[in-house]
Design brief:
Chain lengths: 333, 333, 333
């Protein structure tokens, strides 16, 4: 799984990525972004994978992740087929998930999937392996599972932001919001273990604090962390604050009403307390936890983070199809 | 706005197009159509913009305009991403329109939009300018606003039809139907001011007559016009009759029932009264105001008008991306 | 219609295909599959039709057929535009089907359609001919009509499976299931007349047996057939068994409840009775009539049959656009 020299196939879990793989992927992403800036480079990218076809199977809607993946495919010339509308696929109701998936694998070269069901991406990958269809599965989020490409784009954004300052190693990263139910903070936290001397600060009301299982895992892997419900006491210690929204869709009895946005949001006052070189991240879409007026601050990194998501997905597809060698040498712009 | 030598960027309003720009665009459209007729030319068009990506954001459904724009993109090799189904974008309900739009602009090179909200296209263009994202906005119709690409394809159809007869200059154009609420007659009327000695005749029942604001604008700009509710008295004076349908979707209390199709429709009897060289136009879809039997008359120009819509959109995209120079020299067929 | 030397245009009915055309198409399909196995060949396919645009008009949902056709287009570089969601096309409700179809034909080079209405594909082809739009119509299933591309992929699967054993000629083919209402068995049966000494066995409960009209047609064309409701008595006589599902969607009063799956399904016990070289086919999706455990048996041919569907559609598009000559010489892998 974590042998960085072997090619990537299924992409299911952020923990597949060891430090070498992460550094490698970040380097490739930067190289591709540089290439794409020139017309010649953008056209060269187009010629990499025009003979490949992707299925975007998004029965759990996420327009942002969808658009990011689809355009990543288009950047490489990959043709895309989509199933986004649950009603389009209603006829499949009479069919087992396995049969539907096997059908998809009859027509395309890679399946990118986002579903409600927990573990469906891994289950799909297992099926492909068992029936020996050479079709990689890319997990674009399934249920509450780890969301690997989000974690990768977050890592890339951190690395780029701390370029010239030693990268992620030694940094202090705060996570704020509904840490209990969101999957982005969780996935990224796992990957922080790959870096040296990183400190994590989980900032949330008691009832929304990061799950014990992850905290234990961090402790067991020697990652420094602390938990707090006092945002303002921590702001000046952070190199990055990763803000997340309330996961209201998982409410069973109005839990979200208990979340006090006045104490857990980023606006002008919080920006004032945040160090000069720190950055503000957010996986978007945002709610009241992130004031739009923060957008104009140079430390606001979330829009760049969003674009990074497309580029790291391009790099991932290049890795999956093993065409890195075919990239032209990009002269740095 | 109306400097025809500067490149096009946002396309929001027909009034952006002065006479030189219109002539230029019509010439380019004809050149592209000629090119596309040969296999070699069609393939050359494909290679113009394969490295560009378009978003078709059509939350106000219009399959016709959608198909026309998507295929215009495809003709140039542009990859397209769509949001057509309002329910697909339902997750964006919790997000501001500005954030959604900014997200789109993270992934694509041009946003073509058709929405219910009045002024949303201009608002989007302003946002792009403010945040300095170099992503042009193309208005494919928003609310009751001007619908620039419809007006441009109408101009092109008129110019082509009057080729060898001095073009649009000096012609008499009739508009018939629900002129009060339709936007096509309105948009085209504005552009008629760009031509010399054009006469406009607005033919409609009193309650559906063209709005006073437009009539005043025409008067203020020296454009000859008259209003009438007597179709048959005017038919033999027209070089073109632009027929439009009832805008029932804007009814608030059954106004459309008042419209008398017997007095305001084109069929065999009206064709007989229409001069030999005159043409019949319609933006489609049609209702009872235009008899399908007119289709077989050589003066029926609406199906060609529909196809012209795709071609002028191709030309517009060529202008927006500034690749006119890359077009091969087409030998006229 | 059945002159195999003339190019294909509209594809409406399996009966358009005489023996020479079938052999020709099967040969082309195999050639294309071989080509696509190498990167060079796959890229060569991409360059065949990038300047062509297809409309996939699927108002009767069928994700499988849709995916198969869309990816067949993509394999050849054809750009696709889709109307899948009936609500997307709701605006067309006010427009005649003829006007909508004519609109589609304004923008694309081929229309692939699947609709509820009986005979709509032929009606559409007639319209194109009448208005002289050179846009071929491909019937991807309309109502209870013949479904030509399904029949073609079935023929191809049979031919490939009996390669080295004389092909389809002289074979005994069983059809099992809801033969009365399904269209696949019906369409394939017509094509079996093109082969020498084929025997057809229709295996179904009395109430679901193949229609009298088809049986009379077979008799009139000298095709051997028999009908039975005893699956186990026939299994050892078959070279292929074509299993089909219950067509519950056509129930008017719970007829499907009468179907006894215990007597009409394929599982381990039936496999044991089926000869060594026989094959099991199914158009998919499957219901209880086909045990998933059959999948692991080498005689299970339905997943390959499904993939064949994409390849024969590629071959069909190559024929329609007359670019067979442009295919590179494939060296057999």
């Amino acid at each position: 799984m974590s042998d960085s020299s072997s090619p990537l196939f299924h992409v299911l879990d952020p923990r597949q990525f060891d430090r070498r793989r992460l550094d490698d992927l970040c380097g490739l992403t930067t190289r591709i972004r540089q290439l794409a800036k020139s017309r010649l480079g953008a056209r060269a990218l187009q010629t990499l994978l025009p003979h490949k076809r992707a299925m975007l199977y998004f029965t759990q809607p996420s327009t942002r992740t969808y658009l990011s993946f689809e355009n990543a495919c288009h950047l490489l010339g990959i043709r895309t087929t989509e199933i986004r509308d649950p009603s389009t696929s209603s006829e499949f109701k009479g069919e087992s998930f396995e049969d539907s998936l096997r059908t998809f694998s009859s027509y395309v070269d890679v399946i990118i999937m986002r579903t409600w069901g927990e573990g469906l991406a891994r289950h799909s990958a297992d099926l492909m392996d068992r029936i020996r269809r050479p079709v990689p599965i890319v997990n674009a989020g399934s249920g509450q599972d780890a969301h690997p490409t989000q974690a990768l784009l977050d890592v890339y954004t951190l690395e780029r932001s701390f370029e010239g300052r030693g990268g992620i190693d030694g940094k202090t990263i705060g996570f704020m919001g509904d840490l209990k139910r969101g999957r982005t903070a969780r996935s990224l936290s796992y990957l922080m273990e790959r870096y040296r001397d990183v400190r994590l600060v989980f900032i949330a009301p008691e009832a929304f604090q990061m799950g014990r299982d992850l905290l234990d895992w961090l402790a067991g892997h020697g990652v420094h962390y602390s938990c707090t419900d006092r945002l303002h006491d921590t702001l000046d210690t952070l190199d990055a604050i990763y803000v997340t929204r309330l996961q209201k869709e998982y409410d069973t009895g109005g839990e979200s009403d208990e979340f006090d946005h006045r104490r857990f949001s980023i606006g002008a006052r919080e920006l004032a307390a945040l160090p000069e070189g720190s950055i503000v991240m957010h996986p978007l879409p945002r709610g009241p936890e992130l004031d739009p007026r923060v957008d104009d601050d140079p430390r606001a990194m979330y829009w760049r983070q969003e674009r990074n998501g497309m580029w790291i997905r391009v790099a991932l597809l290049v890795k999956i199809f093993g065409v890195e060698e075919d990239l032209p040498d990009g002269q740095r712009a």
